[in-house]
Amino acid sequence: MTASAQARELLQLAAVAADSKAGEELVALDVSGPLPLTDIFLLVSGNSERNVVAISDAVEDALNEAGVKTLRREGKEQGRWVLLDFGDLVVHVFHQEDRQYYALERLWRDCPVVPFELPHSAVAGQG
């Protein structure tokens, strides 16, 4: 399986929103093969708890404004690892230390990277 066109559209919106709040090391993984409930994971790092919350708020606001409902939100209170579930897209916003510790890229290393565009670069998501 490959990620749906709708999931890729959601990814684009989320990536631009995360980037607008200084999200770092954005990587999108196509998890549609091993996970039947979602298509794409977007992984983003923030450099502080406040930054993690700001990134997650921006992503949630952008997708909600586009008419996409947040199905689940976890971890916002601590600001270390915020999970936002939008159905076809799940966004993980990590504090840099937590991202290294949990190493989701290593866990999902067999999943293909999904490219996306950011305003300041031609193609991102190759992280």
TrEMBL record:
Highest taxon above the source species: Bacteria
Cell compartments where the protein resides: Cytoplasm
Pfam families in alphabetical order: RsfS
UniProt keyword list: Cytoplasm, Repressor, Translation regulation
PANTHER family xrefs: IOJAP SUPERFAMILY ORTHOLOG (PTHR21043), MITOCHONDRIAL ASSEMBLY OF RIBOSOMAL LARGE SUBUNIT PROTEIN 1 (PTHR21043:SF0)
Subunit text: Interacts with ribosomal protein uL14 (rplN).
Family, per entry: Belongs to the Iojap/RsfS family.
Annotated function: Functions as a ribosomal silencing factor. Interacts with ribosomal protein uL14 (rplN), blocking formation of intersubunit bridge B8. Prevents association of the 30S and 50S ribosomal subunits and the formation of functional ribosomes, thus repressing translation.
Protein name in the entry: Ribosomal silencing factor RsfS
Species assigned in the record: Gryllotalpicola kribbensis
